[in-house]
């Protein structure tokens, strides 16, 4: 849920991504190879929103070369290669998947968690992510 809040706050730079960039990238690299599909899709969306915010923000100002690199990074993170690295290669829309609920509610129950797929190996949406994937993502973020 907190990753989804970060995702929403990063849209239109409501999070002041330039100021919080090291912390955001730390959270992303810490969680990128964990959790259910919706968490991994949220983290991918967070990266996209961060780069987009940096491309469009007015403060700090970036050189044209830096803006060009940011635009190329935005294109690169949207490639199927990065969907695979984030473990979301089988989704049609990462944005929709990020907000898909990982909870099921039984009729008559209010906000009672019936199923939660945050534990390792649980759920059918698992893709095996290697340290090489983490390394590639971290290098791209750097």
TrEMBL record:
Name by which UniProt lists this protein: Neurofibromin
